[in-house]
Amino acid sequence: MSDNLSLKTFVVLMKAAKSIEELIKKDISSHGMKSSDFAVIEAVYSKGRQTIRQISEAVLINTGSITYVIDKLENNGLVERVDCKEDRRVVYIQITDKGKKLMDEIFPKHQQVIEALFEGVTSEEKEIVLDVLKKVGRKGEALR
């Protein structure tokens, strides 16, 4: 019975993830962006300047693909590369004034979509979901 419940939980989790992903893609595209572009610019908007590796780890995009996304965002004047004074091998990515202005406009709208998604879910339920997903995620990492 437990195995059956695990399988059912997995299927529901995957369906929920797909539904959420489609909703978020639709929201982001309504602002004229692709999900990968939004993820990168949101990372530097929220956390400040970061290395390409830090951004890659945060948004789960491999470094080869992320360079293309950063190039595109840089060409549009939304982010810029800044050399590290202490280590010439390190290059930081930071948001520009134009990028910050854009995110100041669209991020609150994006956040409202996420809030609507969790409407009717109590804080306690959100904490439980967080704990369970972290536990499952750690187990998945261990089994890889």
Topology of this protein?
Elements (H helix, E strand, L loop, with lengths): L1 H28 L5 H13 L2 E2 H8 L3 H13 L3 E5 L7 E5 L1 H21 L5 H21 L1
Antiparallel strand pairs: 1-3, 2-3
Helix pairs in contact: 1-5, 2-3, 2-4
List keywords for this structure.
mainly alpha, 144 residues, 6 helices, 72% helix, single chain, Arc Repressor Mutant, subunit A
Short description:
This is MarR family transcriptional regulator. The chain has about 140 residues and is mostly helical.
Verbal overview:
The structure is a single chain. The protein starts with a helix and ends with a helix. The model has no long low-confidence stretch (mean pLDDT 93). A hairpin with a 7-residue loop joins strand 2 and strand 3 (91-95). The relative contact order is 0.10. The chain has one domain: Orthogonal Bundle (Arc Repressor Mutant, subunit A), CATH 1.10.10.10. It contains six helices and three strands. The protein is globular and about 55 Å long. Helix content is 72%, strand content 8%. The chain has 144 residues and is mainly alpha-helical. It has helices spanning 2-29, 35-47, 52-59, 63-75, 97-117, 123-143; strands at 50-51, 79-83, 91-95.
